[in-house]
Design goal:
The complex is a heterodimer of chains A (about 290) and B (about 400). Chain A has about 290 residues and is mostly helical. Chain A has 11 helices and no strands. Chain B is built from 14 helices and 12 strands. Chain B has a 5-stranded parallel beta sheet with strand order 2-1-3-4-5, sandwiched between helices. Chain B has a 4-stranded parallel beta sheet with strand order 7-6-8-9, with helices on both faces. In chain B, α2 links the parallel β1 and β2. Chain B is globular and about 65 Å long. The termini of chain B are far apart. The chains are: A mainly alpha (about 290), B alpha/beta (about 400). Chains A and B meet through α1, α8, α9 and α10 of A and β7, α8, α9 and α10 of B.
Chain lengths: ~290, ~400
């Protein structure tokens, strides 16, 4: 029983990381209707920045805040400088740009910091919370942070004029322009927010998986799976998807098929769900009028 | 215009061209002149494994020192060390260049299992010795199939056999859980353990859990292994996953005797896992840890430190990989000395397979290099060590497979 509980909760904690990454993907998708393959590598780069700041003596939360702000700025700049010129290009060109960015971030970081793993501090105390023996404080902390980010994202889109403007810009650019929304800036804002959320995912993942230039490649795969499973246009769905993928991955590996093919089986289940519900478990069904 | 005659002619020309390097390679002593012997190697100076590049740099510096002292048997050594970025296709390209353009006598210490597998057939076909490949995979000690290829590191299998023997002797009722990387590296440990435990293996190994390098963590596997009731935990994992496994097993409060592959015992890795959580780990070693003050009066260490200060920079002294490269370079010199003036490829291989109790500066005391035509595993002795929270402390006798 205790083994089952451990599997469940360690899956839940990893699921939290997938969920935050999925939220970043949802963010960009909401703003641009594109999926950013370089999201993971951007987050990895941000995590290295945070590590650098802490290494030079900054306290954790200062480095955390600064990283989130810098990531936001970097996201905006990337949109303005790299993505904007491709605005009218076919989607495939955009995909190539994203893939190019994956390799650029990966090799630049490897070149600057090297490929050895680095220890990344957790902001949460060493001792587990409330005598909880099933989860370390970092694992519980990740789940709390996941819900905080979710609340922020949800609140932003639901209750702020800016969030409303962003949703409008993505859904109907032409009309939005007519009512005075600066659509171009809304896209840049989406990129910035996605980069900021991604950096949080990186900083939450690094204490568990350790910091190295390849840390995000596998995480992003699960983040994608989570976003698509939950419905890529729905923040709640993305978070639910993250937790489902994390827990399922552990339980499938431990009790169903053994560790050798746990990844394949987890993905088979996801594909199965999507065959029945193509827009994801919680996604909006889009009807196109012809 | 394609006539049959044209085709025949061009075919003949092609055959003649293709034959050229073969003729060159079939000379008596390729790569050797009255004053020089050329040796080639590829190293990961760039890319994900570039931390190992220091091995190549040490060996090039060592050769420089030998040349300044007059060389071996009156010949200078020219060690051509090229970058392969830890990429097998690039290694193949560089090795062909070394063999066909530079015409080296043999290949020495090329690094990495995948790269060495990739170049092994080519070198064996052309009968070019592939000596002391820098990896512990047990693939590189098969004199019947690949007579021109020889390893140097104790194989992962040897290491696992040593763990198995220790467990059998000291914990005969052990229940063993193994975490292994799902490739030839990890499976060598499973093989070795089973070989050492013999018919008790089925009873003693209660659970095996594998992981893929593409997985983010092995936490789930560690939980499964603990849940199996194992009281011995063997960790056959590369650094990142090893650190995760060490930390998770401590976090779970799992009181098991933990064995950690010597691939992942470097101090920064344990620091990543947490030094307190790494306490009590057991590994098997064969190289002196140059960062350990216990060696400060050891003559071998002193020679190494003096060399590193003069020919490299003082900062490499404490690098275990660098110390390893220094010792392997000494083994190479022994082979060249034994060859005398007959530096044909056949004789180089013959002497490499005829090493008797070769001592080096930075291998642990009692770890001797021995080979024979049917033993291509030069090092088969290791020393068990336990981590005390700050350093690895040797205990017990030397063990062999």
């Amino acid at each position: 029983m205790s083994t089952f509980a451990h599997q469940f909760f360690s899956g839940l904690a990893m699921g939290g990381v997938y969920a935050i990454l999925a939220l970043a993907l949802v963010m960009i998708y909401q703003a641009t209707h594109l999926v950013n393959f370089a999201q993971g590598e951007m987050a990895m780069f941000a995590t290295y920045m945070a590590w650098n700041m802490m290494d030079s003596g900054l306290p954790y939360w200062a480095a955390f805040g600064l990283t989130v702000v810098l990531s936001f700025a970097a996201g905006v700049i990337i949109e303005r400088v790299i993505v904007r010129p491709f605005a009218k290009a076919p989607v495939l060109s955009m995909v190539i740009v994203f893939i190019g960015m994956v390799f650029i971030f990966n090799s630049v970081v490897g070149w600057i910091y090297g490929y050895e793993i680095k220890d990344f501090r957790s902001p949460f105390p060493e001792k587990a919370w409330f005598g909880n023996t099933l989860m370390s404080s970092h694992e519980s902390g990740v789940i709390v942070v996941t819900f905080l980010v979710l609340a922020l994202v949800y609140g932003f889109f639901r209750f702020t004029p800016l969030g409303l403007a962003m949703r409008a810009a993505a859904q109907n650019p032409a009309s939005s322009r007519l009512v005075g929304i600066k659509v171009g800036w809304m896209l840049a804002l989406g990129w910035g927010l996605a980069a900021a959320i991604g950096s949080i995912a990186g900083m939450m993942a690094a204490p568990v998986v350790y910091l190295d230039p390849n840390m995000m490649s596998s995480l992003l795969l699960y983040g994608f799976a989570a976003a698509v499973l939950g419905g890529i246009d729905n923040p709640w769905g993305a978070v639910a998807g993250g937790f489902i993928v994390g827990v399922m991955q552990n339980l499938v590996g431990a009790y169903l098929v053994g560790t050798q093919i746990q990844l394949s089986v987890a993905l088979v289940i996801i594909i199965g769900v999507l065959v029945m519900k193509p827009s994801g478990l919680f996604g909006r069904v889009i009807v196109t009028r012809v | 215009m394609f006539t049959r005659r044209n085709l025949l002619l061009s075919g003949a020309a092609g055959a003649a061209l293709a034959g050229l390097p073969a003729v060159a390679l079939a000379e008596d002593m390729p790569g050797v002149t009255a004053t020089e012997i050329k040796i080639g190697q590829t190293m990961p100076y760039s890319g994900p494994a570039s931390a190992y590049g220091v091995i190549g740099r040490v060996e090039v510096a060592f050769v420089k020192m030998i040349n300044e002292q007059g060389g071996i048997n009156g010949r200078k050594i020219n060690l051509i060390s090229l970058d392969d970025g830890y990429s097998p296709p690039k290694a193949v390209e560089q090795i062909r260049r070394l063999a066909e353009q530079d015409k080296v006598a043999f290949i020495f210490q090329s690094l990495g299992t995948p790269s060495n597998v990739a170049i092994r057939s080519y070198l064996n076909e052309h009968k070019i010795p592939q000596l002391f490949v820098a990896t512990g995979a047990s693939l590189f000690g098969e004199p019947k199939q690949f007579p021109w290829t020889m390893g140097i590191n104790p194989s992962y299998r040897t290491e696992a056999i040593i763990y198995g023997k220790y467990i059998l002797a000291n914990m005969p009722d052990a229940k063993i859980g193994v975490l292994y990387q799902n490739d030839s590296f990890g499976k060598d440990y499973i093989d070795g353990l089973k070989a050492a435990l013999g018919d008790k293996a089925a009873k003693m190994i209660v659970k095996e859990a594998s992981y893929e390098v593409s997985e983010p963590t092995v936490d789930s596997q560690v939980v499964t292994l603990q849940g199996s009731g194992a009281n011995v935990f063997v960790i056959a994992a590369t650094p990142k996953f090893a650190a995760q496994a060490v930390r998770k097993s401590a976090d779970l409060g799992w009181k098991a005797e933990r064995f950690l592959t010597n691939v992942s015992v470097a101090y920064p890795i344990l620091k990543g896992a947490g030094l307190e959580k790494s306490k009590g780990l057991i590994t098997a070693a064969y190289v002196k840890d140059p960062a350990d003050p216990i060696w400060k009066d050891d003559p071998g260490y002193k020679a190494w430190a003096a060399f590193a200060t003069k020919y490299m920079t003082a900062s490499v002294i404490t690098d275990g990989n660098a110390a390893y490269g220094y010792s392997v370079a000494q083994v190479l010199m022994q082979v060249l000395k034994q060859c005398g003036n007959d530096l044909s490829r056949a004789n180089i291989l013959k002497q490499a397979a005829n090493l008797k109790d070769v001592k080096t500066a930075m291998f642990l005391p009692g770890v001797l290099v021995n080979t024979s035509p049917d033993n291509y595993f030069p090092i088969r002795t290791m020393q068990l060590q336990r981590f005390d929270g700050t350093r690895w402390v040797s205990f017990g006798k030397l063990l062999s497979d």
